[in-house]
Amino acid sequence: MELRFSVSVSRYYHHWGKSGKHTDTNVVAFRKWLKKYAGGQVDWGSTKFNGSLPPSLPREQLLDRYRSHVVNCSSCNGAYKSLNALQLSLHVYSVALIAIMAVTKSGMISVAASNTLAGFAILCFVGSKLLSHFIYKNFHFHDYNHAFK
User: How many domains does the chain have?
Assistant: First the structure.
């Protein structure tokens, strides 16, 4: 039914008369292009089109921001590199603080200082994980669902 309707529309669209609407300009231009290059209709029966669609890409590849934008944008690329350096430094600080606590003897450092070092190590680790999530969401892939927006 749809195919028959599209064939009849494509054959007789020029008999409808001129449309004064600005929004129809692209439709008329497409119809002219279709008439010039494809004989006025899409060749649905050819061997090129068998009726099935190609497989869709995975969402991660389809909505990939890194390869489609961040690599080519100098501002985003600079921010990406800076945030990755900050994330790495937070990892190093957390490991260094834990190493300092492990190396020092119990009598060399007070309990308050030891607890402070442990707190800073935990804060650095949590900060690096939050930063990692922020980097992935803003520079690599952010899933978007129109139903929840």
Answer: 2
